[in-house]
Amino acid sequence: MGIRLRILSWWTPEWLLKKGLDELASSTIHGLGELLCENSSPENNENYNKQVILNGNLDEKRKLMARAHNKLVESLIENVGKDEAISQGRQVMFQKGLFLGQRFRKILGVGNHLNDLINAARILYSALGIDFQVEENKRGEITMVVNHCSLARDYNPPTCQILSAADEGVVQGLNPNIKMEFTQKITEGCSHCLASIKLMN
C-alpha cells in the first residue's frame, strides 16, 4: 500500500470527502442530464453543463445529490420507459464511474492488491455515507456487504439500480483486474446490500 493511501485510510479530512462527493455528483448528474437530453424533445431539455454545487455538510450534500438523481431518472423513465432508462442509464453510469475510478486510482495511489482497493473504497464510500465489510467464504468467493447506506433513505429503486453501475465502474477503475456486481440492494427491501467481487486474473 502506498504512503498516500495508507495515511488517508487512517484519517481522511472532511474537505477532501466533500471534494470527492462533489466530483462524483457532478459527473453522474451531468451524465444523466446528457442522456435525458438525448432522449427528450429540445424544448424540454435543461442545461446540465453548468457547474453542480451542493451546499451544506456531507449529509446535506448527499441528500441534494440523491434528489437530483431521482428527478433525472424519473424524467428519463417518462421519456423512454423504465427498462430502457435502466439499461441506458447503467451503461452511462458505469462509464462515468470507470473514469472516476481511474482518476482516484492515481490520486490515492492505489496498487494492484485487493486490500488497496478495499481501503480506497472505504475512503470513497465514507463520502457517500456507506459502511461496508468484505467477506470471503470457504470457496474463496468474495462479497462486499453494505450494512448502512445513507443514500438508500432517499433513492427510489430505479435510481439505485442505475447509480449502482457507477459504483461497479469505480471499482473496476480503481483496479482493472477486479469486477464488482451488486446482487442485492437495501432499496429493494433487503436488510443490506450484497455485491460479488471477482478477481479477473
From TrEMBL:
InterPro entries: ATC_hydrolase-like. It holds the Pfam family ATC_hydrolase. It comes from the Archaea. This is L-2-amino-thiazoline-4-carboxylic acid hydrolase. It comes from Methanobacterium formicicum.
